[in-house]
Amino acid sequence: MRNIKATLIIAGAIYIAEGIVLLVAPDRIASLYNFEVLTDSMSYLMAIIGSAFISAGVWFIMTVLDPLRNINAIRFAILWTSLLVIGPLYSLWQGYVEIGQVWFEMILNAVFAIALLIFYPKK
Question: 27-36, 76-85, 109-118: lowest mean pLDDT where?
């Protein structure tokens, strides 16, 4: 049970931090991903996404209090991290981004998804 808790805490902390940056400094994220233009509407969408990341991160950390009772939160964490791998893969396939822009985030989320699946509570 210790491994799932550690995974949830680390993932939650990273998502909260990423969400805060998306919310308060979208220009930094745009620069990190080498996005050339950051319009006001993109900044708005990044703030909304940042709010979702903060919410998910808090929920992941709160799940640590009683993982078995909050098994659906663990399932959500698996879904969340998996979709954060699939979404960029789709964006690559469509030509929206290049691998250099999204590889680190994809790897990080894949590691969390795999860890959550491996450490998923059996009972």
Answer: 27-36
